[in-house]
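chain below, 481 aa
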Amino acid sequence: MIFTNMFIHRPVLWFMALASLAGLVGCRDEVNPIPPPIILYNQPVNLPESHFDLPLTYGLEEFEAWFNEKIHGTFIEHGMLLNNGRDSLFVRVKKLAPIELSVRDGRLVMKVPLRIKSTYYLRTKGLKLRNLVPIKTDVVLTFSSRVKLEKNWHIRTQTELEDVTWIKEPFARIMGIKFNLQEPLEKFIDAEKAVLVAKLDEKAYETINLEKAITKVWKKIQEPKRILKGAPSLWLKFQLTEIHGEDIRLDNSGLINVDLMVTGRTYISTQPETLPFSTEVLPPYLPKQQMRNGFDLSVLATIPYDSLSTLLNNKFRNIKLGKLGSKLKVNEIKIYGSGDQLAVMADVRGIVKGKLYMLGTPEYDAQTNQIQVSNFEYDVNTDNMILGLANNLVQAQLRDSIAAHLFLDISRYVGKVPGLISEAVEKGKAAKAIDLNIDNMEIESCDIRLTTNELQLIIHSRGRGSIELQKLNANKKLKIR
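prediction:
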């Protein structure tokens, strides 16, 4: 009887068994763990200053060509009394040939070829006589100068007359009588040398100015530069504040040298609108501080959690993990800071429904120059809820897949800095006057801060650079009268 009843109700039993199996396969374990607390920390970062040591060089040959272009025309037109006022001499001094520049014992030596035209007025027996044909003679004046860069970027020279070499002795013929005028002309030069060198120094100061050339570099370096395209993008920005330097050095290799040190702060952000404004006006040239022989950069890189979340959502949204019957679909990923850890929330559907939370500690790996998240695991509350639920392998796959994308190769971005600065300068008008050379930078350390809204990195790096002036521009011709 018992067996009969069993066979009579067998279809019902099979239906009940299939229904139970279907319920087991279609079961979706719903979880809602308490999330790790959101950090509330927004203290301003104490970003150290960045220092750019830039040896500025200018070739003596280029400076000589520029100098000759600017100095031309008549130097002096002047008269003087001779022989107790009885006679007089009118002199006009004009540049004869290109000025030759050289360096000796740290001084700029200038050999200036001049042509002197003079008229000699002679009084004798109540008559005033003069030479009908102007006296023409050539002379080379040798000057030497100490050169200094002033606060307003003008060049200050302190010039001395060292030597007078006559190429052609000066003679005048009056009524058939030959007069040697070398002695009176040398007296004239000696009497006028103080005026001459003073005018040379004054005109050089007015004319030779590095402000325009340096301002171009100053502005170009501060322009925002994109170092990563796409969404989100990364932008680099220098905000410069001061510029220091040593005195001009002249060496026998034919170079004019000035060691400059630029100070400021360096920023990297995914939001260019949040970057600080540039310092547009070139500040005064300040006396040297301790030179650091290269670039010493402290870069503040700010990466909003929303940007990191966007990156992971682009990778994982609507991705299904696992095999048929044990799949997990990611709807959304959100990243935020929790204490000194990075928290990742994954909103999932499938064999588990709800929000899963993972935690890891961001660390800098000096060997690879990467920011990595170590000890990345489900947080305690989430782990307790999912323990034994659904397919642990799928949950581990989700965790490991997200962990594989939680790294940042900062050398990839910092390494672009030299090329970006050089490229920015070379694209503009500054390229005609400036050759900026920056060697590769090396990352020395990286400090990590987690704030309420963003991940902050303070990256310390070093490099080397130099500036070579190709030419100088001046609005004035140096004309001495």
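Residues 207 and 476 are 6 Å apart (CA to CA). Confidence is low (pLDDT under 50) at residues 1-27, 428-433, 473-481.
thats it, cya
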